[in-house]
């Protein structure tokens, strides 16, 4: 008997707790030991072909590697953003090649499939491996086995290895652009609003778009505002354009949006003070402040220890327009003129409006679309009188008469700068091509 003597309930409970604690500590120690890097080869040169695609399929066709990132927030690990089949992928290993000593280490990976999979068989996943103590590997290979030939495995560059100083205050992550996207006018207006509000970089995970949209993207890339991440996910999986599984044979929801958002956070972890997670038809509009910088300074002062700020979504239906700002030169450009959409839907009874986020990327471990799944620090819902999400799209409440909508002209505070900036972009892209 492990526990004898006193027969009181207290003694028995204390004994059970003690034994359970001992077994738990022992189990966790063995688990960590099993994940420690082990040398399997020495005197080798790193020769595997370096992967250059945004999405790389492993040989099992059940694991798709996006990108590895160095992460030392808790321990020295390589954190790989990936897509995996939630049932079929049970075991993976990280292969590290350390130069100049030529030692090859293998670490057993911890595979963490994100909880927000919404019924699809594939979902965003973190593949996390402890790194060798005496080595700072620049590349990693992922394999189903701890045995084999590293020369046959693709090598992935481990990003964020070198510490950087912030190059920008705000980066917007847009995922994913798909469906031959052609809402050109609204896209340009959103981009110019982002810049007015203080954004220096917009990262777009692009699946496909129209030829006209390509011209606009080229302009913003050359300007230095836009960074395009190719996102050919439908070359690997059957994608759905909806967020929840419909029993229709698709593999992953909304073009892998959640995976792209997680990659964008890690990609900008060391170069952007804040990362903004929203779609191209959404703008976080401050009501009490002129721009995002002053708004975030105020929110951080009022919410110490908070790293996730959530803003409430409000629909401005594209089907209802004002006669104001009917600018003739814009009428030939495909897309919606948001300056004419100043009527928003009222809140629906017993329905909570979804939220989008501005986050400190260094405090995020896992994110979903409308909330962060794992993070260091607190989350705060931003009151609607401070800011709201202007979301111009097709209506959710189609049967509402116009008089039931709420007239909201907050966007018009920026109309002069917005019109001037949009005209400048159009004159150098769309209108120039039409002459």
UniProtKB/TrEMBL annotation:
Domain of life: Eukaryota
Main localization (coarse): membrane
Keyword list, A-Z: Glycosyltransferase, Membrane, Transferase, Transmembrane, Transmembrane helix
Transmembrane segments: 9-30
The protein's Enzyme Commission number: 2.4.1.-
Molecular function (Gene Ontology), one example: glycosyltransferase activity
Enzyme class: transferase
Topology term for the membrane: Single-pass membrane protein
Entry's localization field: Membrane
A GO CC term attached to the entry: cytoplasm
Family to which the UniProt record says this protein belongs: Belongs to the glycosyltransferase 92 family.
Protein name according to UniProt: Glycosyltransferase family 92 protein
Protein's organism: Climacteris rufus
């Amino acid at each position: 008997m492990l526990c004898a003597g006193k027969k009181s309930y207290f003694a028995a409970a204390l004994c059970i707790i003690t034994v359970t604690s001992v077994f738990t500590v022992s189990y966790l120690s063995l688990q960590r030991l099993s994940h420690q890097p082990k040398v399997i080869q020495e005197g080798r040169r790193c020769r595997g072909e370096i992967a250059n695609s945004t999405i790389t399929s492993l040989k099992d066709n059940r694991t798709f590697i996006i990108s590895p990132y160095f992460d030392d927030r808790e321990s020295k690990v390589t954190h790989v953003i990936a897509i995996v089949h939630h049932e079929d992928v049970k075991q993976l290993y990280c292969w590290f090649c350390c130069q100049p000593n030529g030692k090859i280490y293998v670490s057993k990976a911890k595979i963490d499939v994100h909880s927000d999979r919404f019924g699809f068989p594939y979902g965003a996943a973190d593949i996390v491996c402890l790194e060798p103590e005496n080595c700072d590997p620049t590349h990693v290979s992922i394999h189903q086995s701890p045995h084999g030939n590293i020369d046959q495995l693709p090598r992935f560059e481990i990003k964020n290895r070198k510490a950087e100083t912030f190059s920008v205050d705000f980066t917007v992550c847009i995922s994913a652009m798909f469906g031959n996207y052609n809402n050109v006018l609204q896209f340009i207006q959103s981009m110019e609003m982002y810049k007015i509000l203080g954004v220096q970089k917009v990262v777009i995970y692009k699946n496909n778009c129209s030829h006209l949209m390509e011209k606009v993207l080229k302009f913003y890339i050359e300007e230095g505002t836009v960074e395009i991440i190719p996102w050919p996910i439908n070359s690997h999986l059957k994608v759905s354009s909806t967020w929840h599984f419909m029993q229709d044979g698709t593999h992953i929801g909304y073009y892998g949006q959640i995976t792209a958002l997680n990659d964008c956070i890690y990609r900008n972890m060391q170069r952007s003070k804040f990362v903004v997670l929203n779609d191209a038809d959404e703008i976080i509009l401050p009501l009490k402040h002129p721009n995002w910088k002053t708004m975030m300074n105020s929110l951080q002062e009022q919410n110490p220890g908070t790293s996730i700020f959530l803003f409430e979504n409000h629909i401005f239906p594209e089907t209802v327009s004002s006669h104001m700002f009917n600018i003739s030169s814009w009428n030939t450009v495909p897309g919606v003129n948001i300056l004419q959409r100043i009527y928003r839907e009222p809140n629906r009874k017993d329905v909570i409006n979804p939220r989008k986020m501005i986050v400190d990327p260094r405090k995020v471990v896992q994110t979903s679309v409308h909330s962060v799944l794992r993070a260091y620090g607190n989350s705060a819902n931003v009151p609607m009188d401070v800011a709201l999400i202007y979301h111009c799209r097709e209506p959710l409440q189609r049967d509402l008469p116009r008089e039931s909508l709420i007239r909201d002209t907050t966007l018009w505070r920026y109309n002069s700068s917005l019109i001037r900036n949009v005209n400048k972009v159009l004159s150098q892209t769309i209108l120039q091509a039409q002459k």
